[in-house]
Amino acid sequence: MTDTPDATPDRRPGGRTARVRAQVLDAVRAELAEHGHEGLTMEGVATRAGVHRATVYRRWRDVGGLLVDVIDAAGEIDWQPPDTGSLRGDLTALNQEIQQSLVERPSFAVALMAASFHSAPAARAQTRLWTDRYAQCEVLVERAVERGELPAGRPTDARSLLIAATAPLYHELVLLRAERDPRLPERAARAAVLAAAAGAFSDAGS
Amino acid sequence: MTDTPDATPDRRPGGRTARVRAQVLDAVRAELAEHGHEGLTMEGVATRAGVHRATVYRRWRDVGGLLVDVIDAAGEIDWQPPDTGSLRGDLTALNQEIQQSLVERPSFAVALMAASFHSAPAARAQTRLWTDRYAQCEVLVERAVERGELPAGRPTDARSLLIAATAPLYHELVLLRAERDPRLPERAARAAVLAAAAGAFSDAGS
């Protein structure tokens, strides 16, 4: 491996530039999951990716740049919220997906959260990604209102409902480091739906 | 400052050993809050505390030892859960306390969470502390059952209720880095109480 910069990169989608990015981001994910944020280095990523070090420095500048791009890439995935036919089913499926990402070892999701405590650009990228995902999930609440599962006359704050449904997963598995509880995704979903039905996320609720 | 070890320490409560511990732990809290986990060093703590470096090394061994002791010290405080006369009031007061600890800048609580991603002993100490605090708060649920605020025939899982009430605070303020919302403590408390009243945390709930 040399430090000679690449020749003019091919920027067509699916071209050489895209392939290099895919290789580098795969390497970032693997290094993060195996060694955590503290073990992430430009050199380690370049070696693992089989890409010139100079290319990695020129394009991503530093470890913070790699973290931001790996989070942005997660946001580019064509992710779709679940559609099971009921709000409780949808939130349970969402929670199962979240639980899986948090309990797998090594967990890329947990490594990213840890990293975002130490990198302001990574924290901002993560906030953007989460904001987008919760916005995408608001359709679950809209569909529930259309199906008559939620009080129609008192608009439900979709984001608050989604946070209430998903927060216990992050709290138990990331912050409290509890053992995986296979019933938690369904229980947290059920609690949020019962609260919503009682008007907890409507301004007029009491 | 020299590296000469202390003479035989005075181990009476309130004696020299206790004073040195208090000075060192105050310094750990201040350094953590100001510089974060990555800026915490044995030397920085010793200098700030005005204590011999050798004493700090002998008694706490490394930065992980300092973190564990500062978390254990938080557990030794005579903390009492709120008692406002209603479950919703108690959970709101608890959430206000949590919110305050998370939004103050610098936040010692957030610095400790960040540190626990990088130190297994600190993570274990933090899990112990949180487990104790949630156990202490179970009395809020017992009192609510006695007051007839919760279904008596279907025992409520106190821990699940407490997690549901408090998790949105941590999720919004620590992981999503949302702006402080002065209504959140009360709203999260209200949602958990409505869910509990509907049987969300009872095994027989549906």
Number of helices of chain A: 9
Mean pLDDT of chain A: 89
Largest sheet composition of chain A: none
- The fourth-level CATH homologous superfamily of the largest domain in chain A is Tetracycline Repressor, domain 2
Low-pLDDT segments of chain A: 1-8
Distance between the termini of chain A: 66 Å
Fraction of helical residues of chain A: 55-70%
Mass-distribution shape of chain A:
elongated
The overall number of domains of chain A is 2
User: What is the CATH domain class of the largest domain in chain A?
Assistant: Mainly Alpha
Pfam family, one (chains A, B): TetR_C_11
Organism (chains A, B): Streptomyces similanensis
Protein name (chains A, B): TetR/AcrR family transcriptional regulator
Keywords (chains A, B): DNA-binding, Transcription, Transcription regulation
Describe the protein.
Chains A, B: InterPro entries: Homeodomain-like_sf (IPR009057), HTH-type_TetR-like_transc_reg (IPR050109), HTH_TetR (IPR001647), Tet_transcr_reg_TetR-rel_C_sf (IPR036271), TetR_C (IPR011075). Chains A, B: Keywords: DNA-binding, Transcription, Transcription regulation. Chains A, B: Pfam families: TetR_C_11, TetR_N. Two copies of one chain form a homodimer. Chain A is mostly helical. The first copy, chain A, has two domains: 16-61, Arc Repressor Mutant, subunit A; 78-197, Tetracycline Repressor, domain 2 (Orthogonal Bundle), CATH 1.10.357.10. Chain A is 66% helix and 0% strand. Chain A has nine helices and no strands. Chain A has helices at 16-35, 42-49, 53-60, 63-76, 87-103, 108-116, 120-146, 158-175, 184-197. At the A-B interface, helix 6, helix 7, helix 8 and helix 9 of A face helix 6, helix 7, helix 8 and helix 9 of B.
